[in-house]
Predict the structure.
Amino acid sequence: MFDLFSKTENSKKLHVGISNAASYLGVHSRTLRIWDKQGLLVPKRTKSDRRYYTLQDIKDGKVVWHLLKKVSLNIVGVKMLLSALELNSEFSKDKYKAILKIEKHAKITKEMKEENVRKNSKRGRKKKEKEEKKD
């Protein structure tokens, strides 16, 4: 696989299709279409209305993925946090670093994130419901 983050002269002009962007982010192409529809990651479009992703879009996609999967925020939470980051000029350039800085400032530990993911997962809810029925 090619390295999207190599510091070449052409990296600013780099753009990839949806399948390459999905592959790089480790998600399915359908996921990127959903994120586009929800307004989480809106790529540029060609004249024929095909999506293409720039280097910045890929970086933003990593932020969205991190917030949805690792921090376990819902779509509304992600949209609010990304909007807040856009308003703050210090954070708008490198959102991923900003998210990590916010997590550190809020003292969010890896264990807290894992617990939040477990609670919000389908298995976590089903297991909890079964435990309540036993009592």
Observations:
- The chain has one domain: 9-134.
- Confidence is low (pLDDT under 50) at residues 5-9.
- The domain at 9-134 is CATH 1.10.1660.10 (Multidrug-efflux Transporter Regulator; Chain: A; Domain 2).
